[in-house]
Amino acid sequence: MIPSLPRAPWLRIATAGYLLAFLGFLFLPLVVVAVFAFNDAPYPAPPWHGFTLDWFLGNAQKGRTGLFADSEMLAGLGTSCIVALWVTVLSALLGTTNAFLLERARFRGKQTLSVLMLSPLVIPGVILGISILAFASRIADFADDIFGLDLDFLRPGLPLVVLGQCSYIVTIATLTISARLRRFDATLEEAALNLGASKAAVFRTILLPYLRPALLGSSAISFLMSFADFNTTLMLVGADPPLTVMMYARMREGATPVLNAVSLFLMAASAVLALTLLRRSAGREAAAAAAA
Amino acid sequence: MLDGAVQARWRMRLTLSLLLAPALLWLGALIILPHADLAVLSFRERVAPRHYVPSLAQYKTFFLEPLYWQVFVHTAVMSAIATLMTLLLAFPIAWIIAKLARGRAASLLFIVCLIPFWVSETVRTLGWMILLRESGVLPALLVKLHITDVPVELLYRNATVFVGLVYTSLLFMVVPLVSSLESLDNSLIEAAYDMGAGGFAALRTIVIPHAAPGITAGCIVVFMLTLGNYLTPTLLGGKNSQWFTEQIYAQFITRFNWEQGAAFGFLLLGLSTAMVVLGLRLSGQRFGDVMRRT
């Protein structure tokens, strides 16, 4: 069971076999998505008809719409990026204020508030979506009835999608940032204050640089989660669907390998993001180890 | 001097309220009030255009219409089975990462296991559809290997939905399991062996009790996510997937019957909350600790 105990040969082989099968299970779907982005056939299905870049570069002249000519898909990609940027900025801001609130402030009801902050993680996304949809519509109807105001941003559309995604992504940002703030050595701050720094200066020169890795990490996670969100978005979406909702609609119809092309693009983008993040943290740890 | 103290206290109050405002705005406007509104919505009935009365009609419909509660039970049972399957599949991997692999190999393996979850569920589901549909990769392979004569449709079955759900949930099980197994002292297992315990006895008396918090955390999160999943059951299960979130979507978006949809939403939320509470009670843990683990 553990390396220090004798293990039967069959157990070693079974362990290795299980590991291989598991990795196959994990990567098989991603591999087929990537491979069939290059298949020279109108549907992402076997047999293999040869290599083509049509599903990326194809245009009307070739009779195939590739990813870079598919204006609808590109618009969806753009929409997703805009939504994800908003969600990232809002979650980073709220995550930071929440972290200070939980780690630094003292007030009655803090325990309740911290439990409440975690609750969005155990509410199914579909329900977050419908509750925000219903509540926003009620306010919009009310404003319309009483004041004759037309509050368009409270109707299904991108502002609601941003709010809906924020409702639970803020919790994740809060957890990441407050975990780092908790490990902060308060004597650094005291030293700076003793040396005459103002509170603002301490925040800018000591706390913010210290929190930077957590801010970057939580931003990357927020961006990816927003990009990948489906359940909440589906309930709040208006006329311009983000990429996941658009892909879902096309998957139901049985789409061309353009879907594979855009998926491959997404995989590459997240891989780049993940590797940069890992390298950053790895470099930092190595530097810390060398210093120690 | 007194002035300074008063000023300092006011400043503290100001800072506190500035920090509290965004948190309360977020929780109030996006979580608490919308759910309260959803509750109100679910307990009313439309008697005439723009005229509503309080009633239990929506919940009555749920219990009297067999289709609705059958789909609800189906979703709950399938989610429970999927959670168990995820646990059984993830446990050996978590064990390999936490106990058998060492140093760099362990962290590399851990990262490799996380990679598929950096891409969205849509992409992963697309992969399964290409693999499993009638014109897909696996049916073609089965024909080639002379296991079946004609390509068989592997989509739109309960088993397919399980594959998709387990696949999507693995990450949320592996991470808490690894962290709870890593903290288990190897010498405890050695001691058990020295005293004559077999592998199974050591697992039952040492490993599982120690890993219980991680197991609970993983199961709670996986059950909740599976119950609330919409994409995987509709795409891999097709029309007969009978997932409860589809009913909610149909009432809210297709039929525009928000009262009924709100009641369905509340029932699903109730089940998911009940499972969370039950899981915490059974393992004697606090909510905050569990959530920080995942």
Explain this structure to me?
The complex is a heterodimer of chains A (292) and B (294). Chain A has helices at 9-35, 54-57, 71-103, 110-118, 125-147, 158-182, 186-194, 199-228, 231-236, 243-253, 258-291. Chain A is an all-alpha fold and 292 residues long. Chain A has a domain at 73-255: Orthogonal Bundle (MetI-like fold). In chain A, helix 3 (71-103) packs parallel to helix 6 (158-182), helix 6 (158-182) crosses helix 8 and helix 7 packs antiparallel against helix 8. The radius of gyration of chain A is 24 Å and the shape is globular. The relative contact order of chain A is 0.13. The model of chain A is unreliable at 286-292 (pLDDT under 50). By secondary structure, chain B is mainly alpha-helical. Chain B has a single domain (56-293), classed as Orthogonal Bundle (MetI-like fold), CATH 1.10.3720. Chain B is 78% helix and 3% strand. Chain B is built from 13 helices and two strands; from the N terminus they run αββαααααααααααα. In chain B, strand 1 and strand 2 (51-54) form a beta hairpin. Chain B is globular. In chain B, 43% of the residues are buried. Chains A and B meet through helix 1, helix 3, helix 4, helix 5 and helix 6 of A and helix 1, helix 3, helix 4, helix 5 and helix 8 of B.
Summarize the amount of helix of chain B as a percent range: over 70%
Structural class, from helix and strand content of chain B? mainly alpha
Return Rg of chain B in Å: 25 Å
How far do the termini of chain B sit from each other?
49 Å
CATH hierarchy class name of chain B: Mainly Alpha
Structural class of chain A: mainly alpha
Overall form of chain B: globular
CATH topology of one domain in chain A: MetI-like fold
Main sheet of chain B: which strands, in order across? 1-2
CATH superfamily of one domain in chain A: MetI-like
- The average pLDDT of chain B is 87
CATH class of one domain in chain A: Mainly Alpha
List SSEs of chain B in N-to-C order: HEEHHHHHHHHHHHH
Please bin the fraction of helical residues of chain A. over 70%
Major beta sheet summary of chain A? none
| Residue share in β-strands of chain B | under 5%
Number of helices of chain A: 11
Principal-axes shape call of chain A:
globular
Per DSSP, what share of the residues of chain A sits in E-state strands of 2 or more residues?
under 5%
